[in-house]
Specification:
The complex is a heterodimer. By secondary structure, chain A is mainly alpha-helical. Chain A is 71% helix and 2% strand. Chain B folds into 2 domains: 3-209 and 416-438; 221-411, no CATH class. In chain B, helix 1 (3-22) runs parallel beside helix 6 (143-168), helix 1 (3-22) runs parallel beside helix 17 (417-438) and helix 6 (143-168) packs antiparallel against helix 8 (193-203). The chains are: A mainly alpha, B mainly alpha. At the A-B interface, helix 1, helix 2, helix 3 and strand 1 of A face helix 10, helix 11, helix 12 and strand 4 of B.
């Protein structure tokens, strides 16, 4: 599967599904774009650190999933846009789950903090 | 406070003691006992420090250092042995006493300062080298210049002995205690020690004075509670990398993940960073993120929390584009890479790391989705070898040259200008204070100044 295709499907799942399955896979897809770029620049590096921080926060709470795909081609202009859309979907999903009172408070706090980190990443990429 | 500052303070106090003795009231037995006991402590601490530097054994008289064949080493060993003789000269076990003389207070302070300097060394060296700095010192980094400085400090102690002799001669009538004290000080000042000291100062190189900037070995539980400044951030990073270095068998996946992220983020604060180093940290972060493992406990959990705190602080600076002075922080990065690499190898050897994140597991809703099946990491795992290669590339930035030199460079990254400037300032202040005391006191022994 091509990278863009995978990221669009994960984004769509995040927007239309309530499962946590696509969350970790989405984070990893965002990081895959960063890892494939030899010289991503300061904004991408800082954004990646924010995504990594979100991943670390969510590690105990979301299932560990990956969406296998071919890595993106460096310089592909569509990648940035797709990653931004993915991050937006992740933020919305996480913020929505913060309000789910059935989840324990530490998890809700972690999700809120992770959403904040992704928001920072988004600000750096847009 | 650093080792160099404590030694410098000790020298100031010794100079004060010599000056104060010149104007002290006539010698009384009680004061004699107090001063001689405190003088003995000064020599004991000088010997302890020299012994720590020379052979990492504080009781090492008569034990020639292995391989001590060079003229410099022979001179340094004579220095240690002569100091030991004087430090253990009180065979009669004369009691100590209290004294209100200012000279007694100055000698007490000098002994305390020397003791603290020795404690700083011991924290790195005993019972075995416990830090990268300790290992570098054991391999000789900064040792000869430090011994030259200690020779100067011993000269100051001998100047106190000369002042003591002059003061003891004021006792009327001289008691047995005064005669005993005069003999002890005469043995120090007229024996071979002064010549040995001159040899040390002549033969030992005066620079680089790396140990001047040596702090007490950090511990993970004694780091600053809050990270607010680049200095406290550097102290935290120093404590973390020291803990990782000391406990490779307790390094977990989360340390590798957060440690590499800290490396990448700190490296970004350094606007002069080598792009290749930045790229290596980036690769390290990527590979470390693919590694899983169990959760650390106790000190390991504390190290994780401190890494997370530090990462937040650095990332906040990055996000605000607020780049504080980072010399102190970036100086710790090669040491962090070394410690992470050692910890990675140890964790792989004991089978505590897991990889294989991307193994295909199942399909769901038409999307090809992998659910990870973790496998025990081996040295051949792509994630492990990739992380090893990236960390090794970072280490290579300081590992060019002789292994001993590179260890010294890794342990003492920062040039000691800051400490040297502080010492110079302190010495000029103390010189001014002493000049006031010296006025009208032409008979006082001149303190050797560097």
């Amino acid at each position: 599967m091509r990278y863009i295709e995978a990221i669009e499907k994960i984004t769509s799942e995040l927007e239309h599904d309530t499962s946590d399955d696509p969350v970790r896979a989405g984070l990893r897809l965002a990081l895959l774009a960063w890892r494939q770029d030899d010289d991503p620049g300061p904004s991408w590096d800082k954004a990646a650190l924010a995504v990594l921080a979100a991943e670390e926060l969510l590690r105990p709470y979301v299932p560990d999933t990956t969406a296998p795909c071919q890595p993106p081609v460096p310089g592909d202009a569509t990648v940035s846009l797709a990653v931004v859309r993915l991050l937006l979907a992740l933020i919305v999903r996480l913020e929505r789950s913060v309000d789910e009172a059935t989840r324990p408070l530490p998890e809700r706090l972690a999700r809120h903090a992770a959403a904040g980190q992704l928001d920072q990443a988004l600000a750096l990429l847009t | 406070m650093t080792y160099g500052l404590w030694i410098s303070r000790a020298r100031v106090h010794l100079g004060d003691a010599a000056e104060q003795l010149a104007v002290a009231p006539a010698a009384a037995d009680r004061d004699v006992l107090a001063l001689v006991a405190r003088r003995g402590i000064v020599y004991q601490q000088l010997h302890r420090t020299v012994a720590l530097l020379l052979n990492n054994q504080a009781t090492g008289v008569g034990r020639p250092r292995r391989g001590a064949t060079t003229p410099v080493e022979a001179v340094l060993n004579r220095f240690r042995d002569r100091l030991h003789l004087i430090a253990t000269d009180n065979e009669q076990g004369m009691p100590s006493a209290t004294s209100h003389l200012p000279a007694a207070a100055s000698l007490t302070a000098a002994g305390d300062c020397l003791g603290l300097a020795a404690d700083i060394l011991a924290s790195h060296l005993l019972p075995r080298p416990r830090t990268p700095e300790g290992l570098a010192i054991q391999l000789g980094a900064g040792v000869a210049p430090a011994l030259a400085e200690l020779a100067h400090a011993t000269m100051d102690a001998l100047a106190v002995d000369q002042a003591l002799q002059a003061w003891l001669s004021t006792a009327a009538p001289p008691s047995g205690i005064v005669a005993w004290a005069a003999d002890a000080t005469r043995r120090a000042t007229t024996g071979p020690l002064p010549a040995v000291l001159r040899d040390v100062i002549t033969t030992a190189p005066a620079d680089p004075r790396l140990l001047d900037e040596l702090h007490l070995a950090p511990t993970i539980t004694a780091t600053p509670p809050a990270i607010e400044t680049p200095t406290s951030a550097a102290a935290t990073l120093r404590a973390i990398r020291t803990w990782l270095w000391q406990h490779p068998a307790r390094v977990h996946a989360v340390h590798l993940r957060l440690g590499t992220q800290v490396g990448l983020a700190v490296n970004y604060l350094d606007t002069t960073a080598n792009p290749r180093t930045q790229s290596a940290w980036r690769r390290a972060v990527g590979f470390a993120d693919d590694i899983e493992g169990s959760t650390p406990t106790d000190d390991g959990a504390h190290a994780t929390a401190r890494l997370a705190d530090l990462l937040i602080w650095v990332r906040t600076r990055l996000t605000r584009d607020d780049t504080p002075p980072t010399d102190e922080l970036t100086a710790e990065l090669p040491g962090l890479a070394h410690a992470l690499l050692t910890g990675l190898n140890a964790a792989v050897a004991r089978g505590h790391l897991f990889v294989n994140r991307s193994r295909l597991d199942h399909r769901r809703k038409g999307v090809l989705r992998a659910k990870t099946i973790w496998a025990r990491a081996t040295r051949e795992s792509t994630e492990i070898s990739g992380l090893q290669y990236a960390l090794a590339a970072i280490c290579r930035t300081v590992d060019q040259g002789q292994p001993q030199q590179s260890r010294a460079r890794a342990a003492f990254q920062r040039p000691p200008q800051a400490a040297a400037a502080a010492l110079t300032s302190m010495r000029s202040e103390s010189s001014r204070a002493l000049a006031q005391l010296r006025r009208g006191n032409a008979d006082a022994p001149q303190r050797r100044s560097r």
